From TrEMBL:
GO terms for molecular function: G protein-coupled receptor activity. This is Putative alpha-1A adrenergic receptor-like. It comes from Stichopus japonicus. GO terms for cellular component: plasma membrane. Pfam families: 7tm_1. It is found in: Cell membrane. The lineage of its organism: Eukaryota, Metazoa, Echinodermata, Eleutherozoa, Echinozoa.
Length: 233
């Protein structure tokens, strides 16, 4: 009964081919688009800003993620096993998980960067120095790498060829690895992004309300001055 239930959730080869086609398209778009972003930032010195350092990191992480998708295409089109060295599939899965985590943390970092620039402009130059940005980017890669490694070291999961879905990912040993990845990556990044952009929205709204109020007061004062003014007779 257990084998029948597991078999019922396995992808058919036709479904694998469809998913593989989507992976190929996504990989091509990701590689081309993110390569252009990386080249644009590297070539033009005008784009060498603190914000674009994170944009460059995001583009590079997404570019590497796109480069891992062909290995998943190989896994999907393989019949019963990975059509190549198993270590290659494991490395592709590790790289993909690390890059996806780095992308999420980089998006949160960009949101924080915008928050400081808009709401605390006087602090911006102190926080986003060259040394801090370099250390920050290193941390953006180190955190997801550690989060990917710790569950496997503790025996909570294993990464490699997943025969159930035909991709390079975590194996169906337990749900502990999925839980560790989900809790460690998605909620933290999402919460930071929501908080930062919500604070930006509130700040901009209050700022605009103040500008409108001052403009209205200036107009009223100008009108009163005109009424009080008595020209020469």
């Amino acid at each position: 009964m257990e084998n029948q239930t597991q078999h019922a959730f396995e992808f058919t080869y036709e479904q694998r081919c469809v998913v593989a086609m989507f992976f190929i398209v996504i990989a091509m778009l990701s590689i081309i688009g993110n390569s252009l972003v990386v080249l644009s930032v590297l070539i033009s010195q005008k784009l060498w800003t603190a914000t674009n350092a994170f944009v460059l990191n995001l583009a590079f992480a997404d570019l590497v993620t796109g480069l891992t998708l062909p290995f998943n295409v190989m896994a999907l089109l393989g019949m019963e096993r990975y059509p190549g060295p198993s270590q290659l599939c494991t490395l592709a899965a590790w790289t993909m998980f690390t890059c996806v985590g780095c992308s999420l943390y980089t998006l949160a970092s960009i949101a924080f960067n915008r928050l400081i620039l808009i709401t605390k402009a006087m602090w911006y130059g102190r926080i986003f120095t060259d040394r801090i940005i370099v250390a920050w980017v290193v941390m953006l890669w180190a955190l997801p790498l550690i989060q990917t490694a710790i569950p496997t070291v503790l025996g909570a999961g294993e990464i490699g060829y997943n025969s159930k879905y035909g991709v390079c990912a975590q194996l169906d040993v337990s749900n502990a690895y999925d839980l560790a990845q989900a809790v460690g990556l998605y909620p933290v990044s999402l919460l930071l992004i929501v908080i930062c952009y919500l604070r930006i929205y509130i700040y901009v709204r209050k700022h605009n309300a103040g500008v409108i109020k001052r403009d209205s007061e200036n107009k009223s004062q100008t009108a009163n001055d005109k009424e009080e003014y008595v020209g020469p007779r």
